[in-house]
Amino acid sequence: MNTATSPSATLRPDTPAPAPLDTAGLLARYGRPVPRYTSYPTAPHFTPEVSGETYASWLAAVPAGSAVSVYVHVPFCAELCLYCGCQTAVVHNAKPVTAYAERLEEEIARVRAHLPAQLTLTHLHFGGGTPTMLADADFARVMGALRRAFDFAPDAEIAIEIDPRTMDADKVAVLAREGFNRASLGVQDFEEKVQAAIGRRQSYADTKAVADALRAAGITAINLDLMYGLPHQTAETVTHTVEQALGLDPDRIAVFGYAHVPWMKKHQTLIPEADLPGPLERLTQAELVSDLLTGHGYRAVGLDHFARASDPMALRAEAGTLKRNFQGYTTDDAPVLLGFGASSIGALPQGYVQNVASTAQWHQAMERGGLPIARGIALTHEDRLRRAVIERLMCDLKVDLDALAAAHGVRADLFDAELAALDPLVADGLALRRGRVVEVPEAARAFTRVVCAAFDPRLQATRVQEPEKKRHAAAV
Q1: Which of 210, 136, 220, 215 has the alpha carbon at shortest distance from 178?
Q2: What's the pTM value of the predicted model, to 2 decimals?
Q3: What pLDDT digit, counting tens, does each position of 307-327 carry?
Q4: Strands 336-340 and 67-74, sheet pairing
Q5: Rounded to 10 degrees, what is the CA torsion of 318, 321, 326, 329?
C-alpha cells in the first residue's frame, strides 16, 4: 500500500515522518458517499428554476470571439454493461440513432442562433453511451453542423469515447476523415471472470487491433479507461490487467472506482454485492494500480488519472493549471462548455444547465421548439469561490485559501469554520495545514473527495434532509 508523502507535505524541518495511515479505520470513518466534484455546485442541486429561456439569455451574453468547448452525448449502446452508470439505452437498429443525429443537428443550430458570431471551438468530446453507434452519415451530419456553427481552432482537440467491440476499419476511417485526434478506449478489466460478471466480453487482441488501427489512421492520442472495485477483481487480476494495458502504450489512463448504485441504476442489481471487493480491498486495488503505473513512468494526475510525463495533461498538472469538468480532468480552458443531446450538461460563466435526461422526452422537448433544458443552477459569488477551492484540491491536492480569497475579493477568514472542521482529518493524516494552505498528502490521495467535502456547505445541508447514499457513491 502506498504510504509515501510528497516533499511539500513537510510542515517544519523537525516534523517527524507521518505514521502509516490506519486505512481500515479511515474507511470506517470517512468511506461515506460524497460527490465526484466534476462541478460545484454538484448536479443534485440543479433545479427547474433554470430553464431554456434562462439558457438563451446566458448564451446571448457570451462575448464575441470567445473560445468554446462542446460535449455531444450519444445515449445508445449495442448491449448494456452491468456496471454502467451512464445515461444510455440498448438499440438494435440504426433508425433511432439516425433520428437522434437529425435532432442533434437541430439543437446545434438552435443554440448557435442565440450566440454571437466568431466563436472558436477548442475542445470537442463525444461521449455516451457508445458514440460510434452513429453511422457514417450521422457523423457527417453532426460534424457538419458543428463546423457550420463554430470556427474550429487549428489545434482543437477532437475526442471520442470508443467501445472497441463495435469498431471496424470503416469506422476508424470515418473518425479520421472527420478530424478526430484523440480516442478513449473502454477496457475496464481484461480478466474473463470479471468480464462475464459485468456483461462485457472484450479480448486484449481485439482492443489492441483497434488501438493499432487508430494510430495507423493518424488518431495517435490514445486513452484507456480502467476500473477497480468490480466483481471478482483481486490484486492479482488488477495487476494482470494493468500489465496488458501498458502493452497498448496509452498516453493517458483513467482509473475509476466502480460505483455500485443499484437504487439509481436498476441493472446493477444483477451484480451480487457478495461478489464485490470490500472497501479495504477496493483501496488496495486503487493504490496497486497507482504504484504500477507510476512505476512505469506515468504521472499521477489528480485523483484518478495517469499520463505520460510529456502529455499536455501531465504538463498542466505540473504547472498547477489543470482543469476539471463533467468529462473529468482536462486541459480545456474555454470559459463556455456547450452540451448537446439528452442529459448533457453545459457550463457558462453564469451557471450550469442540463438537458432533459430521457431520450424520448428530449425528442419531445425539441418538437415543442426552444432549448431542451430541464434544470440548472445560477452561480453565486460564493459558489464560484468554493468551486475554485474544490477544483484546486481535486487537481493539485493543494489549495492556498488566502490566495483564492484575495483573487475573489473576500476576507481571508471566510474559511475559518471549514479549517476548524478539518482538524479531525488533519489528526487522521488525510489533510495537512500550513496557515490557510490545505494539502492532501500523497498517502491520502484516495480520500481527496473527503477533504473537498469539508468546503461544500450544500452537501452538509442535504445530509440533514436525506441520506447521501441516494445521491452519491462511496468516497473511496
Answers
A1: 136
A2: 0.92
A3: 999 999 999 999 999 999 998
A4: parallel
A5: -10
